[in-house]
Amino acid sequence: MNSSRIPLYRVQGTHYQCAQQIGSLTREAIRHRIADDFAYLSPLFAFVQSDYGLKLHRDFIEAIRKYYPWYWDEIRGLADGSEIPIEQLLVLNFLNETRTAYRLLEEKKKDQEPENETGEKGCTTVLINRTDTKTLSLLHNEDHSSSLFMTGYLVEADIQSSPYENNQRQSPDEKFIAYCYAGAIPGNAFGVNVHGFACSLNGLYPNFIAHGRLPRQIVNRALLSAKNEDDLDNILYSSPVAYGFSVNGGFFTQPNHLFNYELGPNLKLENENYLSKCWIVAKENIQDIQADFEVMKNYFVHYNHYERLADVIVQQKALESTYSRWQRGQELGEISTIQDAICLLGDNQNEAFPIFRVPNATDSNSVTLCTVHINFLTSELSIYQCNPKENNQPSLIYNLGDLFQ
Predict the structure, then answer these.
(1) N or C terminus of the chain: which is more exposed, having fewer CB within 10 Å?
(2) 3-class SS at 74?
(3) pLDDT > 70: what percent of the chain?
(4) What is the side-by-side order of every strand in the sheet holding 153-159?
(5) 65, 212 in Cβ contact below 8 A?
């Protein structure tokens, strides 16, 4: 079943070719996103034309071309296909880093407190691994600017490997389905790849950026190439991040556990990340686990603040939305079933900072774009366009078995 508001595009070719096709298909959507969000984006477009902003982006580009030149080709392809100035697309792809750098600069200029994040554009994710209710699922609210409500889309990509650096390196063969923001390469929302890796992302908000490292979008994009958990660990440890994020997910090939990672840049060591990992394991199986990281039993909910790295990463100060959602999650209590997760993700009791978001007086520019349910037992990806608590019929059901073949 296809969704009217969230189209599904299928592309095939090299990294550049696939991105160029996506750019052409989504040209009008990108223009609409920029126009609808222009009051918010315009200062950032101006900022990246300044000497400081230009250097910030040039250093990011240099890091991308060093670590993942094929994803730089995807940005180039997106620009060429869409005919949108690449400088504007770089803002969309480096959005958290650009926004934070701009705010910190304004704070320094005016010698005053910046307008801190409230966490309002972050997401909520529920991971359930229970034998008592026979549930192994990831459920996730994808939240962001209202300009993306009509411009987000799904892409099914089949990407062919290409040689780089005089045949010294090869880009990965990739095949995946992912939810994407107009104007940005895939990776920062949710997706599933051919190797059985499924993930969703939560934004995290350090009060600093690491210059000359990889923007979050690029590392998130690299996740869609992960072949197994060791490969995933290697990507996250070896890719120096400029900003923070959290990864939630699991492998269909490893059905005994799900996992969550929190990441952020470690400024004390060159090109090093702070990284904290935890597994979500069914209560009955915890005694069999020997790990040097945290293990949670039965379920885990993640929002947009650091839980395990808060002592080492200085976060932006307000983050009202994420802590309000966390508090409401505590009130709703233990999650045992998919319906419990849907009740949490669809909750709107807190009018100022609801878990399921519609534009309101507190933040008219933040909405829940969709809710996704990735079921590791049925190999289905289901997307809800409306509040799943009020309308439990998904608008799209994707058989992941077709992807895994």
Answers:
(1) C
(2) helix
(3) 96
(4) 8-13, 153-159, 174-180, 190-193, 197-203, 245-251, 257-266, 272-281, 294-297
(5) no
DSSP helix/strand/coil, 370: strand
Question: Which pLDDT score is estimated for 120?
Answer: 57
* Rounded (10°) CA dihedral 375, 378, 380, 386: -60
Cα separation, 273 vs 379, whole angstroms: 33
Domain boundaries, the chain: 1-405
Which amino acid type is present at position 347?
Answer: D
pLDDT in tens, 386-399: 999 999 899 999 99
What is the rounded CA–CA span in Å between residue 125 and residue 140? 4
Fold observed for domain 1-405: Penicillin V Acylase; Chain A (3.60.60)
pLDDT, residue 288, reads 84
**91-121 residue pLDDT tens:** 999 999 999 999 999 998 886 665 555 555 6
CB 356 within 8 A of CB 387: yes
C-beta of residue 208 within 8 angstroms of C-beta of residue 267: yes
